[in-house]
Specification:
It contains 12 helices and 14 strands. 32% of the residues are buried. It comes from Arcticibacter tournemirensis. GO terms for molecular function: ATP binding; ATP hydrolysis activity.
Length: 351
């Protein structure tokens, strides 16, 4: 176990271990930086002045409808197409000036990866290893480990022409990992995969990021999938990045002027409901931040100008009430996305 660093900590704080501090430093280190990135095709503006920083070791979701400019942005990150203006750095390397070096450090999985269908899974991985000049013994060891990691160890000898769509995508993930990349970019990787396969694929992505420190850029139009696995998201519409951040931060910014909603339910003493309801209302109304309290049969609906959930719960319990249910409304990624997409905040970029 790592020895804690010895430095003063405030009340209620704990000392961080060396490993935790290293992780904090790594996470704060930019690994992809886009500055004013713009791409025009004639008169068509595909990507419009994109500014974005993705940090080392995080899973970042680039979220937007088809045609938003996500794939064009990825192509510029990989040095496969040049920007009209602006800059893109990946792993500290200018992708426009030195695209080959970027490709050595980045693995890219498109929505439909191609394999030699007459080759089996192992042979396809070894072919990729040879292209990356990995020594044969090391390539075999890596391929075996990766096939096991993605759940294809038992299918390694099967020709890829007989693989299902989900198996092909898992093999594709092994394929991009065989060169030990610092970053993997996944462009709509779950298209055409059954729900169970999607769950397994997303869980695998999270494990790779957490256990091996790989930075993941996941481009998708599936809101639920992005919300499941991503540390932060960027909302991309019409070639513009309208917002980026984690979901709680985006929610707080976007819905700052809307009341927090809390619903509670308590078990009243038999024959004392009326008096206890009156006392409960007084207790809840006394909590800082509460603006209104309404009873609806068994439920009590509470509106607040800030999130007072823990304070409401504490006040109810400390005043002797039997709290049996508590729920507070959280704005999910679908609400955040649709608010931006419908133009609620599209005039200005939120950070």
């Amino acid at each position: 176990m790592a020895r804690p660093l010895h430095y003063p900590a405030g009340a209620g704080q704990r000392l961080l271990s060396v490993q935790e501090i290293r992780k904090e430093v790594a996470v704060s280190t930019p690994i992809i930086e886009l500055r004013g990135l713009t791409k025009r095709y004639g008169d068509f503006l595909a990507v419009d002045g994109l500014d974005l920083t993705i940090r080392k070791g995080e899973v970042f979701g680039l979220l937007g409808p088809n045609g938003a400019g996500k794939s064009t942005t990825i192509l510029m990150m990989l040095g496969l197409t040049e920007p009209s203006s602006g800059s893109v750095e990946v792993c500290g390397i200018d992708a426009t000036v030195n695209p080959i070096e970027v490709k050595r450090r980045v693995g890219y999985l498109p929505d439909d990866i191609g394999f030699y269908e007459s080759y089996n899974g192992m042979d396809n991985l070894l072919y990729t290893a040879r292209l990356n000049r990995i020594p044969e013994d090391e390539a075999v060891a890596r391929a075996q480990r990766l096939l096991s990691r993605v759940g294809l160890a038992g299918e390694a000898a099967k020709k890829t022409g007989k693989y299902s769509r989900g198996m092909r995508q898992r093999l594709g993930l092994a394929d991009v990992l065989i060169k030990n990349p610092e970053v993997i970019i996944l462009d709509e990787p779950t298209l055409g995969i059954d729900p169970q396969g999607v769950r397994e694929f997303l869980e695998l992505i999270v494990r790779l990021s957490r256990e091996e420190g790989i930075t993941v850029l996941l481009s998708s139009h599936h809101l639920h999938q992005v919300q499941q696995v991503c540390d932060r998201v960027g909302i991309f519409v019409g070639g513009k990045l309208l917002a980026d951040g984690d979901i709680p931060t985006l929610s707080a910014q976007l819905f700052a002027n809307e009341a927090f909603k809390i619903t509670i339910r308590v078990k009243f003493s038999e024959g004392k409901q009326d008096t206890e309801k009156q006392r409960l209302m007084q207790v809840v109304q006394s909590v800082e931040g509460v603006t209104s309290v309404q009873f609806d049969q068994d439920d009590i609906h509470i509106s607040c100008y800030k999130d007072a959930t823990p304070h409401v719960a504490r006040a109810v319990i400390e005043n002797g009430f039997d709290l049996i249910h508590l729920n507070h409304k959280e704005h999910g990624l679908d609400e955040i996305y649709h608010r931006y997409f419908e133009g609620g905040k599209a005039d200005g970029k939120t950070k």
